[in-house]
Amino acid sequence: MFGNPAIYFLMGTANAGTKEPLALLEEALQGGITHFQLREKGRGALTGDALVEFAAECKGLCREYGVPIFINDDVELACTIEADGIHIGQDDMDCGQVRKQIGASMALGVSVHSVKEANEALTCGATYLGMGPVFGTRTKSDAKPPAGVAEIIKVKTQYPHVPVIGIGGIEPGNAEMVWRAGVSGIAVISSIAGAQDVAEQIERFKQSIPGRRVG
Ligand code: TZP
Ligand code: MG
To answer: What is the reported pLDDT for 211?
Structure first.
């Protein structure tokens, strides 16, 4: 699932700006994102049946492009639409509990900020780790201060075979140092969602990969 460098796009309706969210997702899929996470948060976020319907539509689009879909935080939604994975943060549910609820086959991503948190997440059965914010971000209102890549390097040194995804303020111009820290992928919201030409922007991200093999 994270064998080749991942361009992991996160989005919810709040990130789509003036665009229709599904149209934005399709542009990103056409542009070559490798992973998608539905992160439906903030003002005007969909709930209830509307959210389930939207998530199912996102899944349908992702399937057309062979791209796995992850759901942020919402275990019930992930199970309802039979997503490929779920992603949780440190302040969300207990990750061991989540692993029990989703079973062995659904992927579990956990946001961590240290080797200690990485250890705990892996003990709970995390499939991959999200680490950040690497750089400053305005997208997540409760984001921690920018952490750079030092902790990513420590986690990768301790757990070389565990996929780590860098997140937070990543743009084509600063992505290379994240790749060089040993990540399996970069997770991006605003730099893709807000791009004038989404496909061109994704291509710029691909160009930032040392060696340039995406999948
Ligand atoms: N977790 C840490 S930073 C962040 C999340 C969800 C937001 C990333 O958004 P952007 O726009 O790519 O900085
Ligand atoms: Mg969360």
So the answer is: 85
70 and 102 Cβ atoms separated by less than 8 Å: no
Residue 63 DSSP one-character state: H
In the predicted structure, residue 206 carries a pLDDT above the cut 80: yes
Question: What's the gap in Å between 91 CA and the centre of ligand 1?
Answer: 16
Annotated catalytic sites, by residue?
39, 111, 140
pTM of the complete model = 0.98
Q: How many CB atoms lie within 10 A of CB 144?
A: 13
Q: State which ligand 1 atom lies nearest to the alpha carbon of 111.
A: 1
pLDDT digits (tens, 9 = 90+) for 78-131: 999 999 999 999 999 999 999 999 999 999 999 999 999 999 999 999 999 999
DSSP H helical ranges for the chain? 21-31, 48-64, 75-80, 95-102, 115-123, 150-158, 175-180, 190-193, 198-207
Residue 195 Cβ contacting ligand 1 at under 6 Å: no
Give backbone dihedrals phi and psi of 169, rounded to 5 degrees, phi first.
Answer: 70, 20
pLDDT tier for residue 154 given thresholds of 50, 70 and 90: very high
Which ligand has the shortest distance to the CA of 172? 1
Q: In angstroms, what is the span from residue 143 Cα to ligand 1's centroid?
A: 8
Separation of 139 CA from ligand 1 center, angstroms? 6
